[in-house]
């Protein structure tokens, strides 16, 4: 049986593969307020969490699964995981530690994997795939957040790389087929992610994970070798 990459490449030789669409508007249409996001587990969490979509992989998995199923039913070939802001850096705004962030990613990948496998079983002639969404950060390596101090950086390259590594490991563990480095606005941030998706870890830790794609809007070009 051809592996995941061969299957997807065969599809792309014949037609355009369809990625799923917006998540935010679908979530916001259904869920509003703190209680809708917290669930019982995080009822007493110290920080506001309304508007943290990645938390729903843990507290409202049925909502995430329904969105995946709706997109597959509409004809999508590839589901993106609900992990757009699920890095240790991004989730620090909500005071979630590395253990919760890991769970967000692995559960997000598993929910998408389950939906993809279910639809692939229903229609064997139309296999479905899962892209692990590695979203942008709320910090930048190329620009200083302090106008008066252009050399200042809120984070280091190593910190950004480690945050991405933490996310990517969990996505691979959850069973994604490929990685989507998504909506990047900083070229050095993108480089930190790219150094990881090209490592041997891709094949050793997750044989399924054979591709990576970069979707970006570059506002500062600081790529260096």
Which features would summarize this protein structure in a list?
disordered C terminus; 4-stranded parallel sheet; single chain; globular; 9 helices; 225 residues
Number of H/I helices: 9
Question: What is the count of structural domains?
Answer: 1
Mean pLDDT: 88
Intertermini distance? 39 Å
The string of secondary-structure elements, in order, is HHHHHEHEHEHHE
Largest sheet: 4 strands, parallel
Number of strands: 4
CATH homologous superfamily heading: Homocysteine-binding-like domain
Query: What share of residues are in beta strands?
Result: 5-15%
CATH uppermost class: Alpha Beta
Shape: globular
How does the helix and strand content classify structurally? alpha/beta
Helical proportion, percent range: 40-55%
The radius of gyration computed from the alpha-carbon positions, rounded to a whole number of angstroms, is: 18 Å
**CATH architecture, please?**
Alpha-Beta Barrel
The largest sheet has its strands arranged as: 1-2-3-4
Instruction: Show unreliable segments.
Output: 201-208, 216-225
């Amino acid at each position: 049986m051809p592996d995941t990459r061969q299957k997807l490449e065969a599809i792309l030789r014949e037609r355009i593969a369809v990625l799923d669409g917006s998540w935010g508007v679908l979530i916001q249409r259904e869920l509003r307020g703190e209680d809708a996001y917290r669930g019982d587990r995080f009822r007493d969490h110290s920080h506001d969490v309304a508007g943290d979509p990645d938390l729903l992989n843990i507290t409202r998995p049925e909502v995430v699964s329904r969105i995946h199923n709706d997109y597959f039913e509409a004809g999508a070939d590839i589901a993106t995981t609900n992990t757009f802001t699920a890095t240790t850096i991004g989730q620090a705004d909500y005071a979630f530690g590395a253990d919760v962030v890991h769970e967000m990613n692995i559960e997000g990948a598993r929910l998408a994997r389950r939906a993809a496998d279910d639809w692939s079983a229903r229609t064997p002639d139309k296999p479905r795939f899962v892209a692990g969404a590695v979203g942008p950060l709320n910090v930048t390596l190329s620009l200083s957040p302090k106008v008066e101090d252009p050399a200042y950086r809120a984070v280091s390259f190593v910190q950004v790389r480690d945050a991405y590594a933490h996310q990517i490991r969990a996505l691979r563990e959850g069973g994604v087929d490929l990685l989507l480095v998504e909506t990047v606005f900083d070229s050095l941030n993108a480089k930190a992610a790219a150094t990881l998706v090209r490592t041997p870890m891709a094949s050793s830790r997750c044989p399924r994970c054979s591709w990576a794609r970069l979707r970006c809007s570059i506002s500062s070009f600081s790529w260096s070798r």
